[in-house]
Prior knowledge:
Blueprint: E1 9-10, H1 17-25, H2 43-56, E2 65-75, H3 88-98, E3 103-107, E4 113-116, H4 121-125, H5 128-135, E5 144-149, E6 157-159, E7 168-172, H6 179-188, E8 229-230, H7 268-282
Parallel strand pairs: 2-3, 2-4, 2-5, 5-7
Antiparallel strand pairs: 1-8, 6-7
Amino acid sequence: MRKLLLGLFLIALLPLACQRQLQQDATAYKKNVVHGVVLSDDYDVYLDQIIALQQKFPIENQQILRFPVKIHVVNPLLNSELRDEDFSEALNFLNSNFISSNIQFDFVKEGNDYIYSERNVDHFYKSANVEEFFTKKTYDENAINLYVFDDYKDVIGYTHYPVLNLNRIFISKVHLQDPAFVHEMGHFFGLLHTFEKEITQQSDVSDQNCGSNGDKICDTPPDPFGASFIEKDCSLFGEYHDKSGRDYRPNLNNFMSYYGSCRTQFSPQQQDLMYFIAKVIKHPKMRVRV
């Protein structure tokens, strides 16, 4: 993880893992088939179709959806005494931040897996083949598979967008009670970054194309890509302008931004999109065993 220490409270730079992993390796995996949606390796195209489907068939009465979570602890000590670690605080943290989206999580009854490996998160992020080989024996297709690592270098966590039928999240242990964990789960349920320009066109301040540019969410203000500095009171340090010279005023509290520990919330439209994807794409493929 890269940090700039300039006497300010700065963000920890999170990886753009979902984009790179998807674009490079989408053809290697089974896709999530949804009636009325044409499968595409381009997540921009796929997400446009999902949003159109959501607008046509909105879910009015949202009942809480529960997802089983399987913990895989990646331990670098070959002959160490492995104990059944307690991740309940991490689960409580996740649930407290997803309850407003009517999504909740439970541990599977089988308990944790422990896997010996000296590799960190970065190693698996860089190679889809390594990830596939590493997870093949322990992957549970009917649960969210959470691979917890003791170590990381630059990448603290990543996951896959829901166009792929891959229910995996990789995260460093020290970030399990950090907004970064919630951020990755947001990607798991289909959300883009608030500053998105890798998959879509970056939003300008006018936000006239908020449904197609940026994160495709119209209640998240345009966010300047690469804005790294925030004050201790979670206010933006410096000024950032779009190409027309208008000032950006992003929401520094949004989980899908890169504003470090300032992140505390999803917007209502983000919550609705996550719930729709959870219900229509993710939930039917899970078999809750809690």
